[in-house]
């Protein structure tokens, strides 16, 4: 009898206890929450929803806001913030930041002017600016990756270093570059949409493919999500960081080319407004500040949103002094919306 009781007790203990049935609506609710969390709909929808609302509000306040000449002009103005935001996305995806982006633009513009003064062809001058950005990005990536120094400290130091090199090289003086081939992309376009904006969109498509459809992109997302786990999987973390910051720096070089083309001269002074807009566009675009999650369309829309916001305030007669204030509020609000998402 005791053997029978023992076997019965053992059988009872080994039998799994079935989970309590859930109400149908609770199961659907949890599934919906998981779906929202997986796709990050709230954070990714911030920029497009805000852009639509902004366009509606400003068009009501000033009907000229959405006129075709006004729209194409604002899209052209958003070109450099878009390009820099695309570059900053790679740094932020690595759970880092590049504070030297605006200084890289200035130095690239200076080296472009130096090459122009040396009598070099315009295509080579543009290549020099691009190479300048790559070198700055490689320096940042190498020190961050192999030196294991926080990205904030490295890029803050690089920002000052690059700014100093640009000012010393140019003596603080711009170089006039009256070349038709240089201004072509900023003056001409298709249907009123200028080539510089189309170039920025093309870069966004290329970088989307690089980030989401290549092995390197998968490695970069993995490193940004969890560096220790990436090391355990034998990923070469320093090399991945180097490549990510090289792309970021290269976008700074492209920004230098487009800025010089837009203005018609080299610009040795660092415009920190570009850095603010680039980081703001990344945050508004839904790129995780914790790394490991990114999008390319989000930062593009974020940059367009900020440009439209600034232009709309100008059309309404608001002083330009209020623009940094408004952009700062928008960035903090977007960051608060993203809190808890990783």
What does this entry look like structurally?
- It is globular, with a radius of gyration of 25 Å.
- The chain has a two-stranded antiparallel sheet.
- The protein contains 17 helices and two strands.
- Helix 6 packs across helix 15 (272-284), helix 7 runs parallel beside helix 9 and helix 7 crosses helix 14 (237-263).
- It has a single domain (67-336), classed as ABC transporter involved in vitamin B12 uptake, BtuC, CATH 1.10.3470.
- Mean pLDDT is 86; it is low at 1-39.
- The chain has 342 residues and is mainly α.
- Residues 1-22 are annotated as: Disordered.
- It comes from Nakamurella panacisegetis.
- This is Autoinducer 2 import system permease protein LsrD.
TL;DR?
This protein is an all-alpha fold.
Descriptive key words:
17 helices; mainly alpha; cell inner membrane; ABC transporter involved in vitamin B12 uptake, BtuC; 75% helix; two-stranded antiparallel ribbon; 2 strands; cell membrane; 342 residues
């Amino acid at each position: 009898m005791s053997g029978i009781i023992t076997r019965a007790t053992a059988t009872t203990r080994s039998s799994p206890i079935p989970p309590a049935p859930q109400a149908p609506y609770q199961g659907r609710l949890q599934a919906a929450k998981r779906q929202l969390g997986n796709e990050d709909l709230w954070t990714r929808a911030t920029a497009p929803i805000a852009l639509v609302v902004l366009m509606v509000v400003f068009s009501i306040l000033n009907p000229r806001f959405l006129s075709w000449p006004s729209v194409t002009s604002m899209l052209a103005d958003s070109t450099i913030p878009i390009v820099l935001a695309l570059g900053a996305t790679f740094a932020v995806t690595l759970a880092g930041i590049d504070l030297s982006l605006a200084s890289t633009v200035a130095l690239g513009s200076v080296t472009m002017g130096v090459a122009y003064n040396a009598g070099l062809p315009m295509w080579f001058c543009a290549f020099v600016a691009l190479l300048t950005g790559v070198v700055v990005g490689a320096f940042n990536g190498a020190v961050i990756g192999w030196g294991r120094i926080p990205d904030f400290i490295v890029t803050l130091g690089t920002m000052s270093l690059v700014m100093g090199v640009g000012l010393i090289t140019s003596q603080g003086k711009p170089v006039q570059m009256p070349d038709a081939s240089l201004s072509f992309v900023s003056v001409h376009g298709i249907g009123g949409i200028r080539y510089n904006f189309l170039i920025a969109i093309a870069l966004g498509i290329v970088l989307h493919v690089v980030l989401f459809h290549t092995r390197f992109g998968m490695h970069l997302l993995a490193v940004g999500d969890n560096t220790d786990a990436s090391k355990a999987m034998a990923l070469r973390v320093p090399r991945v960081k180097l490549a990510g910051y090289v792309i970021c720096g290269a976008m700074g070089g492209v920004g230098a080319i487009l800025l010089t083309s837009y203005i018609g001269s080299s610009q040795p002074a660092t415009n920190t407004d570009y850095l603010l807009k680039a980081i703001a566009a990344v945050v508004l675009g839904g790129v995780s500040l914790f790394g490991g999650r990114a999008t390319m369309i989000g930062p593009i829309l974020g940059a367009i949103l900020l440009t439209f916001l600034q232009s709309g305030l100008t059309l309404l007669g608001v002083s330009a002094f209020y623009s940094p204030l408004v952009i700062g509020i928008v960035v903090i609000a977007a960051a608060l919306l993203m809190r808890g998402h990783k």
